[in-house]
Amino acid sequence: MMYHTHLVFGLLFALLVLAFINPANKYIFLAVVVLAALLPDIDHENSKINSKIPGLRFLSKVFGHRGFLHSIWIPLALWLIIDFGFHSRYGSAVFIGYLSHLFSDGLTRSGINIVHPFKQLRIQGFIETGSVLEHLVFFFTSVLCIVLIVG
Ligand SMILES: [Zn+2]
What we know:
The structure is a single chain. The protein is mostly helical. The protein has one domain. It has helices at 3-18, 26-36, 48-52, 58-63, 73-85, 91-105, 132-150, and strands at residues 112-113, 122-123. Strands 1-2 form a two-stranded antiparallel sheet.
Protein backbone atom coordinates (compact mmCIF):
# COMPACT_ATOMS: atom_id res chain seq x y z
CA MET A 1 0.00 0.00 0.00
CA MET A 2 1.07 3.56 -0.61
CA TYR A 3 1.90 5.84 2.29
CA HIS A 4 -1.29 7.90 2.10
CA THR A 5 -3.39 4.72 2.28
CA HIS A 6 -1.42 3.73 5.39
CA LEU A 7 -2.08 7.19 6.84
CA VAL A 8 -5.86 6.90 6.50
CA PHE A 9 -5.87 3.33 7.82
CA GLY A 10 -3.86 4.58 10.81
CA LEU A 11 -6.40 7.35 11.34
CA LEU A 12 -9.30 4.87 11.02
CA PHE A 13 -7.78 2.48 13.58
CA ALA A 14 -7.08 5.40 15.95
CA LEU A 15 -10.64 6.73 15.67
CA LEU A 16 -12.11 3.26 16.26
CA VAL A 17 -9.90 2.65 19.31
CA LEU A 18 -10.66 6.11 20.75
CA ALA A 19 -14.24 4.96 21.23
CA PHE A 20 -12.98 2.48 23.85
CA ILE A 21 -10.01 4.14 25.51
CA ASN A 22 -9.39 7.57 26.94
CA PRO A 23 -5.78 8.69 26.43
CA ALA A 24 -4.37 11.67 28.34
CA ASN A 25 -4.29 13.69 25.12
CA LYS A 26 -6.29 12.32 22.22
CA TYR A 27 -4.58 14.57 19.66
CA ILE A 28 -1.13 13.30 20.60
CA PHE A 29 -2.58 9.78 20.57
CA LEU A 30 -3.93 10.29 17.03
CA ALA A 31 -0.63 11.77 15.83
CA VAL A 32 1.42 8.89 17.29
CA VAL A 33 -0.88 6.27 15.74
CA VAL A 34 -0.76 7.91 12.31
CA LEU A 35 3.04 8.27 12.39
CA ALA A 36 3.46 4.68 13.60
CA ALA A 37 1.32 3.60 10.64
CA LEU A 38 4.23 4.63 8.39
CA LEU A 39 6.98 2.98 10.46
CA PRO A 40 7.05 -0.56 8.98
CA ASP A 41 8.06 0.74 5.56
CA ILE A 42 11.50 1.78 6.84
CA ASP A 43 12.31 -1.64 5.35
CA HIS A 44 11.54 -0.25 1.86
CA GLU A 45 14.40 1.71 0.36
CA ASN A 46 12.24 4.30 -1.41
CA SER A 47 9.42 4.64 1.13
CA LYS A 48 8.08 8.01 2.24
CA ILE A 49 9.43 7.55 5.75
CA ASN A 50 12.92 6.84 4.41
CA SER A 51 12.78 10.01 2.33
CA LYS A 52 11.91 11.99 5.50
CA ILE A 53 14.20 10.31 8.03
CA PRO A 54 17.74 9.94 6.70
CA GLY A 55 20.05 7.14 7.70
CA LEU A 56 17.55 4.29 7.94
CA ARG A 57 17.81 2.96 4.38
CA PHE A 58 20.28 0.27 5.46
CA LEU A 59 17.36 -1.46 7.24
CA SER A 60 15.91 -2.39 3.85
CA LYS A 61 19.15 -4.25 3.11
CA VAL A 62 19.25 -5.94 6.52
CA PHE A 63 15.63 -7.06 6.78
CA GLY A 64 14.25 -6.94 3.24
CA HIS A 65 10.87 -5.45 2.38
CA ARG A 66 7.90 -7.02 4.17
CA GLY A 67 10.11 -9.31 6.20
CA PHE A 68 10.73 -9.12 9.96
CA LEU A 69 9.74 -5.45 10.17
CA HIS A 70 6.33 -6.41 8.78
CA SER A 71 5.71 -9.01 11.51
CA ILE A 72 3.65 -8.77 14.70
CA TRP A 73 6.81 -9.03 16.86
CA ILE A 74 7.91 -5.44 16.23
CA PRO A 75 4.70 -3.69 17.36
CA LEU A 76 4.46 -6.02 20.37
CA ALA A 77 8.06 -5.25 21.36
CA LEU A 78 7.57 -1.49 20.85
CA TRP A 79 4.40 -1.56 22.99
CA LEU A 80 6.18 -3.33 25.84
CA ILE A 81 9.31 -1.18 25.62
CA ILE A 82 7.43 2.14 25.46
CA ASP A 83 4.74 1.32 28.04
CA PHE A 84 6.86 -0.55 30.58
CA GLY A 85 10.38 0.63 29.76
CA PHE A 86 9.57 4.33 29.46
CA HIS A 87 6.33 4.33 31.47
CA SER A 88 4.59 6.09 28.63
CA ARG A 89 0.93 5.55 27.81
CA TYR A 90 1.62 5.89 24.09
CA GLY A 91 3.01 2.40 23.53
CA SER A 92 -0.51 1.29 22.68
CA ALA A 93 -0.74 4.12 20.12
CA VAL A 94 2.44 2.87 18.41
CA PHE A 95 1.06 -0.68 18.52
CA ILE A 96 -2.25 0.31 16.93
CA GLY A 97 -0.62 2.41 14.21
CA TYR A 98 1.84 -0.35 13.36
CA LEU A 99 -0.98 -2.91 13.37
CA SER A 100 -3.03 -0.77 10.98
CA HIS A 101 -0.10 -0.85 8.56
CA LEU A 102 0.21 -4.65 8.80
CA PHE A 103 -3.56 -4.97 8.33
CA SER A 104 -3.63 -2.79 5.22
CA ASP A 105 -0.59 -4.51 3.69
CA GLY A 106 -2.43 -7.76 4.43
CA LEU A 107 -5.12 -6.62 1.99
CA THR A 108 -2.62 -6.59 -0.87
CA ARG A 109 -1.89 -9.42 -3.25
CA SER A 110 1.71 -9.73 -2.08
CA GLY A 111 0.53 -9.80 1.55
CA ILE A 112 2.68 -10.22 4.67
CA ASN A 113 3.87 -13.06 6.88
CA ILE A 114 2.66 -11.89 10.28
CA VAL A 115 4.93 -14.29 12.25
CA HIS A 116 8.06 -13.93 10.11
CA PRO A 117 10.62 -15.53 10.40
CA PHE A 118 9.48 -18.29 12.76
CA LYS A 119 6.55 -19.73 10.83
CA GLN A 120 4.47 -19.05 7.79
CA LEU A 121 1.17 -17.31 8.52
CA ARG A 122 0.43 -15.32 5.42
CA ILE A 123 -2.16 -12.60 5.34
CA GLN A 124 -3.04 -11.78 1.80
CA GLY A 125 -5.76 -9.99 -0.10
CA PHE A 126 -6.43 -9.11 -3.71
CA ILE A 127 -5.51 -5.43 -3.95
CA GLU A 128 -2.56 -4.48 -6.12
CA THR A 129 -0.46 -1.69 -4.59
CA GLY A 130 -0.98 1.55 -6.52
CA SER A 131 -3.96 0.19 -8.45
CA VAL A 132 -7.35 1.82 -9.03
CA LEU A 133 -8.71 -0.49 -6.33
CA GLU A 134 -6.22 0.87 -3.81
CA HIS A 135 -7.31 4.41 -4.70
CA LEU A 136 -10.93 3.38 -4.09
CA VAL A 137 -9.99 1.82 -0.74
CA PHE A 138 -8.16 5.05 0.13
CA PHE A 139 -11.21 7.12 -0.82
CA PHE A 140 -13.75 5.06 1.14
CA THR A 141 -11.48 4.77 4.18
CA SER A 142 -11.08 8.57 4.12
CA VAL A 143 -14.86 9.02 3.93
CA LEU A 144 -15.29 6.62 6.86
CA CYS A 145 -12.77 8.64 8.88
CA ILE A 146 -14.64 11.86 8.14
CA VAL A 147 -17.93 10.25 9.16
CA LEU A 148 -16.34 9.08 12.45
CA ILE A 149 -14.87 12.55 13.12
CA VAL A 150 -18.04 14.47 12.30
CA GLY A 151 -20.52 11.95 13.67
ZN1 LIG B 1 4.39 -1.97 4.31
